[in-house]
């Protein structure tokens, strides 16, 4: 039963995903989906399995069971490179930046531009970095210093620039505003809305229910590795969602599920 | 001081590297004065270059190992076992198969050294990268194992003499480029420096990025070229000892002019090997993907992994490179000593690591330069040969070298802190 307001084919479907670490089932038979131009909030306590689930999509973790479908076709994602092949970009909570490298090197890390002979095309990479940073953070000028000396917001914009430059269609944001000041967080909100308008599908992981209600179209709630359910943001209140997070119970209102 | 800093900033000169160079010059001048003018002479500098070469070659590889947060304590012992095997190959195995003095002997032996080094390094890399055994443990084991194997190769017997051509790779009296060759090498270096600078400048102009002013560019390139020429001139100023020159003339049937034969030594072959390797590995480290990944792994292994970099494979190949460089160091060291004895390379792992650390690399990983490591190697060798010149005994040499190591790292830490405060 697809949502009638959405395109018929989901951008991403993660079906019956399970991941175990040792004897612990970190993710247990979870099914979620994401449509183009949509933000899906992923919420739950610490250790509810949100980050693990999302790292399966970004290729950082291997799933023990389940399937991933992209554009209605079964996808094989077994590494970070595979995920990038499907235009899946992830902005990790830790930002995953190499602190000793500059913004350009981080933006192109793992996907460097090279000239004939295998030499890095530093000038072309700097040019591309300047262009994308101009769009995201026009005040950014520190292109040649290690990112360790940048502020939290500047580091965040480098991480986001990486996703934007490589034409992400599916964007995963893990706590994108947790380390930011009010002003910087507002900038990130603005950007998320803009990217959604451009037709990207965004998974947003956040502890901040206020953020999630502000930005998401739908909310998927996880508890103890299991999916409690997925609801349309407009159909529920914060208390409903809190109930799902804490008690693991669906609210009385009709919920939209994936199938 | 601030004006000086601004000038360096304008010239885009690495202050840290300049500081190391200045320290090296201070050490040289100090020994020069203390030895009544015996240290900064063409002859002593020529010997210093030869003595530094094998540790310098290993320091080049150790930079990469330390940048990726690993360590290799086995390099001195690997050098030892490789040198022993190469001694046996060229002195016992090949001569019966080929003619005595056949040029194939040194070529086969040298290739065997590099390949054997790569294999031993690959073994380290496999245990560390794929099996996840800490590099400290693996290479501490290697330190003992390979030193023991070095003895077993000939049951402790020293192998000598080595192949005549092979020994040229160690420098000595004949292993040099001589006068003309040295000038050609210097000319090639100058051309490469100018072309590389121009190329980089054109790249930046292509995208309209700021470039340093023409005068600054000219000063930096000009000074670098002058240093290259000064080096070649100094090496050419070292005259070959008369006995050696006479023997060379007899061998080649050169007529000996009246007043004796005056031949220049020129740039030593091991020094040329160090320079070529340093440039090649610098390009790999600073201008290619491989090097970018090496730094990324050192800065943040998780980020490197998430960026799709195969950390295990990278670790493996860094140790393969380290091993291959040990092989080259083994060639240089045994060729210089003109024999292969089982204690060759003992304690070289400590000299190598000290060179890299004095050269500004952090043992926490993520930072280090090849030029710094080379200066570090020169500093250590200068201290040792300077103190030998002054008649210090070995125990005192060790004490001073150890103190300098700790002091150098402390001063570098202070400098880094002061820069962060700016």
Biggest chain contact = A-B, 33 and 26 residues
Report the span from N to C terminus of chain A: 5 Å
Biggest beta-sheet profile of chain B: none
Based on CA atoms alone, the radius of gyration of chain A comes out at 19 Å
Strand content of chain B: under 5%
Low-pLDDT residue intervals, each spanning 5 or more residues of chain B: none
User: What overall form of chain A do the CA principal axes indicate?
Assistant: globular
Helix content of chain B: over 70%
Structural class of chain B: mainly alpha
Number of strands of chain B: 0
Report the sheet-strand fraction of chain A.
15-25%
Mean pLDDT of chain A: 89
Helix and strand pattern of chain B? HHHHHHHHHHHHHHHHH
Poorly predicted sequence stretches spanning 5 or more consecutive residues of chain A:
none
Structural class assignment of chain A: alpha/beta
Overall radius of gyration of chain B: 22 Å
Largest sheet of chain A: 6 strands, mixed
| pLDDT averaged over residues of chain B | 93
What strand line-up does the widest sheet of chain A have? Answer: 6-7-8-3-9-10
What's the total helix number of chain A? 8
What is the overall number of helices of chain B? 17
Short description:
Chain A has 259 residues and is α/β, with parallel strands linked by helices. Chain A has helices at 50-57, 80-85, 103-107, 122-136, 152-165, 182-197, 209-215, 238-247, and strands at residues 12-21, 24-34, 39-43, 65-70, 73-75, 88-91, 170-174, 201-205, 218-223, 226-232.
């Amino acid at each position: 039963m697809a949502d009638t307001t959405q395109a018929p084919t989901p951008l991403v479907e993660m079906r019956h995903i399970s991941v175990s670490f040792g004897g612990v089932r970190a993710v247990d038979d979870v099914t979620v989906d994401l449509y183009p131009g949509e933000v899906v909030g992923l919420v739950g306590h610490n250790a509810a399995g949100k980050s693990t689930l999302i790292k399966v999509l970004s290729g950082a973790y291997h799933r023990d069971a389940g399937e991933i479908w992209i554009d209605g076709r079964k996808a094989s994602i077994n590494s970070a490179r595979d995920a990038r092949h499907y235009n899946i970009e992830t902005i990790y909570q830790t930002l995953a930046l190499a602190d000793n490298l500059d913004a350009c090197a981080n933006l192109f890390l793992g996907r460097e531009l090279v000239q004939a002979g295998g030499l890095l095309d530093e000038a072309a990479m700097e040019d591309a970095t300047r262009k994308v940073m101009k769009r995201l953070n026009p005040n950014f000028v520190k292109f040649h210093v290690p990112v360790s000396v940048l502020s939290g917001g500047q580091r965040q914009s480098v991480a986001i620039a990486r996703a934007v430059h490589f034409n992400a269609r599916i964007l995963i944001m893990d706590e994108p505003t947790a380390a930011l000041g009010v002003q910087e967080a507002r900038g990130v909100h603005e950007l998320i809305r803009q990217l959604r308008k451009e037709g990207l599908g965004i998974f947003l992981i956040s502890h901040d229910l206020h953020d999630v209600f502000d930005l998401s179209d739908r909310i998927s709630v996880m508890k103890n590795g299991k999916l409690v359910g997925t609801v349309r943001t407009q159909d529920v209140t914060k208390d409903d969602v809190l109930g799902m997070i804490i008690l693991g119970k669906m609210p009385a209102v009709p919920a939209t599920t994936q199938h | 001081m601030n004006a000086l800093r601004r000038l360096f900033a304008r010239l885009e000169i690495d202050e840290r590297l300049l500081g190391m160079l200045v320290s090296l010059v201070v050490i040289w001048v100090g020994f020069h004065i203390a030895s009544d003018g015996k240290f900064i002479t063409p002859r002593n500098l020529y010997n210093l270059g030869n003595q530094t070469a094998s540790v310098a070659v290993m320091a080049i590889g150790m930079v990469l190992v330390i940048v990726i947060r690993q360590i290799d304590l086995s390099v001195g012992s690997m050098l030892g076992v490789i040198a022993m095997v190469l001694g046996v190959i060229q002195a016992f195995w090949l001569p019966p198969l080929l003619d005595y003095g056949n040029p194939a002997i040194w070529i086969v032996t040298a290739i065997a050294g590099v390949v054997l080094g790569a294999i031993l390094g690959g073994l380290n890399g496999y245990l560390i990268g794929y099996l996840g055994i800490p590099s400290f443990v693996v290479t501490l084991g290697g330190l003992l194992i390979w030193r023991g194997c070095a003895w077993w190769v000939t049951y402790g017997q020293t192998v000598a003499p080595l192949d005549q051509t092979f020994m040229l790779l160690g420098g000595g009296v004949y292993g040099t480029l001589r006068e003309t060759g040295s000038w050609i090498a210097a000319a090639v270096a100058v051309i490469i420096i100018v072309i590389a600078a121009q190329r980089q400048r054109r790249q930046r102009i292509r995208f309209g990025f700021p470039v340093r002013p023409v005068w600054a560019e000219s000063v930096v390139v000009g000074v670098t070229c002058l240093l290259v020429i000064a080096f070649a001139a100094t090496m050419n100023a070292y005259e070959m000892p008369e006995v050696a020159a006479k023997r060379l003339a007899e061998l080649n049937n050169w007529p000996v002019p009246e007043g004796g034969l005056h031949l220049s030594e020129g740039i030593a072959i091991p020094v040329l090997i160090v320079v070529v390797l340093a440039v090649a590995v610098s390009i790999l480290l600073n201008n290619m993907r491989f090097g970018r990944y090496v730094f990324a792994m050192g800065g943040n292994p998780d980020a490197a992994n998430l960026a799709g970099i195969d950390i295990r494979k990278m670790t493996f190949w860094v140790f393969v490179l380290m091993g291959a460089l040990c092989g080259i160091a083994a060639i240089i060291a045994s060729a210089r000593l003109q024999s292969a004895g089982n204690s060759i390379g003992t304690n070289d792992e400590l000299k190598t690591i000290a060179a890299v650390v004095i050269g500004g690399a952090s043992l926490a990983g993520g930072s280090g330069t090849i030029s710094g490591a080379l200066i570090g190697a020169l500093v250590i060798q200068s201290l040792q040969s300077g103190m030998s010149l002054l008649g210090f005994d070995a125990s005192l040499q060790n004490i001073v070298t150890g103190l300098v190591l700790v002091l150098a790292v402390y001063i570098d830490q202070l400098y880094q802190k002061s820069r962060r405060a700016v």
